[in-house]
Amino acid sequence: MTEPLLSTHGLGRSFGKLEVLSGLDLTVRSGEVLGIIGPNGAGKSTLLSLLGGSIPPSTGTIDYAGEDITGRKAHWRARHGIATSYQIPRPFLGMTVLENLLVSARYAADLGKKEAAGAAWYALERTQLTERADDLAGSLRLLDRKRLEVARALAGKPKLLLLDEVAGGLTEQELPPIIELVKAVQSIGVTVVWIEHVVHALTAVATRMICLTYGRVLAEGTPHEVLSSPEVQAIYLGIEPDIQEEAEHA
Predict the structure, then answer these.
(1) Which residue of 71, 111, 136, 206 has the smallest Cβ count within 10 Å?
(2) Cα separation, 182 vs 52, whole angstroms
(3) Which tens digit of pLDDT belongs to each residue from 213-246?
(4) Where in the chain is the domain with CATH 3.40.50.300?
(5) Which residues on adjacent β-strands are paired with residue 9?
(6) From the CB of residue 190, how many other CB atoms can be counted at a distance below 10 Å?
């Protein structure tokens, strides 16, 4: 079995008296696309923030590439291969697409000028934005802004990409390019943790899936195994487990 790239042990986060995540033991294997689903308030975004280093855990530890990084800040993680692509793209609107990537490569990933230029063009190619390199980021439609958000993360040459609802807000016609984009990211050896509400987009790519609810793991396995779980179906489809069991044996 592939060695884990990242793992958490007893990870928890509380905001005051509100416990958002509790005792989470998570393993992310190198090269996989791990999909994370769950209802609103399940703790998905909080988990991504903990992994990316933007907030500290209340309990537990995070290991990455064999090192305990629990106390490491977001900028350290970015420079050591953990990148985050956010749900709402926030590029520098007055800069070109290429300039946005150069900023990410130089300052987020701390690459030298020559290496940053190479990383920026590589990210443009991987995200199919080469023809928009000289366009202002503010002129891009939502789909291309989503591409740019992923490209900014890739410009830092990450080993692990944390995707926060990259399919959110897109039309059904715009989903296939995003699905292909995530596949392209995986194909170059980047491990992906993807939280998403658009479940059918996630299942097209994810090799493994976890469903969170109330800050705990409800189900884990292949996408088919997780989505076939009576407990998961009760959350997403309103099918009570005992009712489903009766229907299956009718």
Answers:
(1) 71
(2) 18
(3) 999 999 999 999 999 999 999 887 665 555 444 4
(4) 4-81+159-248
(5) 61
(6) 22
In 3D, which of 2, 3, 33, 37 has the Cα closest to residue 184?
33
Alpha carbons 159 and 157: distance in angstroms, whole number: 7
> Which amino acid, residue 50?
L
Residue with the bigger pLDDT between 188 and 249: it is 188
**Topology adopted by domain 4-81+159-248:** Rossmann fold (3.40.50)
Q: Note whether 133 and 97 are within 8 A (CB).
A: yes
List the one residue out of 191, 143, 185 whose CA is nearest residue 167: 143
The token duo for 97 is 């697409």
Amino acid found at 146: K
Residue with tokens 């179906």: 233
